[in-house]
Amino acid sequence: MIKRNQIITLAVTFAGLFLGHAALGQQAGKVVRAKGEVVVLSAAGGSQALEKGSAVSVGDSVKTGENGQALIQMGDKSRLIIRKNSEVKIEAFEYKKASTDKVETSLISGALRAVSGKIAKKNPASVKYSAGTATIGIRGTDIDIAIVGDGQTDRPGIYNYVRDGATQMALATGEVADIEKEKAGFSPRDRKPGEPALQVLDSRPAFIQGTGFDTLIQQLANPRLPSFR
Fold first, then answer.
1. pTM across the whole model
2. What is the pLDDT of residue 162?
3. What is the C-alpha to C-alpha distance for residues 28 and 35, in angstroms, rounded to an integer?
4. pLDDT of the residue at 34
5. What's the structural domain count of the chain?
6. What is the CATH number of the domain that holds 197?
7. What is the distance between the alpha carbons of residues 58 and 89, in angstroms, rounded to a whole number?
8. How much is the pLDDT for 86?
């Protein structure tokens, strides 16, 4: 016979599992603009093309091709530009104007630009980005993150460039660095003898090049600017 306390425990367990699965399908944002090859890979394993107005949910990965790029606006008005040949996963998103609000985004490959929204303004510690072995925390920020491979102008590794505000970049091995405006955090893929695993660069990485998507993201941040079409 199942005792009453066992029934309660089972009920709590199943409720937790249900809430966890429900969060995976929860809408996190919408596509403001998409160009070229842009697809979403759902947590359930499905795949479909994204276009303006398409929803993006928790657990989804947005993937772009060689000529692809997408601008996504999240529910708290934060924004993401997903560059060409990139993949970004929405790990978590909750916006209820409560202490539990959070945003967690992973760069799987390529590059992205992220502009903070309402969650970051109220509680910056609730906003996290990750790229490879690096985790990036923000303080009211407009940033670029990239995983650079071979054949590019920049040296291979993980980059975090700060356009505005500041970030703290931390590696899984324990190194931590504060990145100020117009500087870049850098973790080289192949370290030279005696070279630090995490560095702060004064120069702007070559991968940062403005497009029409950057004009639009600025217009969304400041509606007084002329709209971009």
1. 0.86
2. 97
3. 20
4. 97
5. 1
6. 2.60.120.1440
7. 8
8. 98
pLDDT at residue 223 in the model: 60
| pLDDT, position 71 | 97
Predicted pLDDT of residue 210: 87
Dihedral-angle region of residue 170 (phi above 0 means left; psi in -120 to 50 means alpha; beta otherwise): beta
The amino acid at residue 56 is V
**Nearest C-alpha neighbor of 26 from the set 84, 103, 99, 117:** 103
Q: Does 13 map to a domain? A: no
* Nearest C-alpha neighbor of 161 from the set 102, 206, 97: 206
Q: 17 in a domain, yes or no?
A: no
| pLDDT given at position 36 | 96
d(CA 65, CA 36) in angstroms, rounded, equals 7
Q: Are 30 and 72 in contact (CB under 8 A)?
A: yes
Low-confidence ranges of the chain (pLDDT < 70): 1-24, 223-229
Structure token digits, residue 34:
């998409």
φ, ψ of residue 118 in degrees (nearest 5) = -70, -35
Closest by CA to 217, choosing from 118, 81, 116, is: 81
Does residue 136 sit within a domain?
A: yes
C-alpha 78/C-alpha 28 separation (Å) is: 10
Helix ranges (DSSP H) in the chain = 4-24, 118-122, 212-221
Burial zone of 178 (CB within 10 Å; 0-12 exposed, 13-18 middle, 19+ buried) = middle
Say if 190 falls within a structural domain. yes
Neighbours of 116 (CB within 10 A): 23
Question: Which residue range is the domain that position 79 belongs to?
Answer: 28-221
Given a contact cutoff of 8 angstroms between Cβ atoms, the answer to whether 187 and 197 are in contact is yes
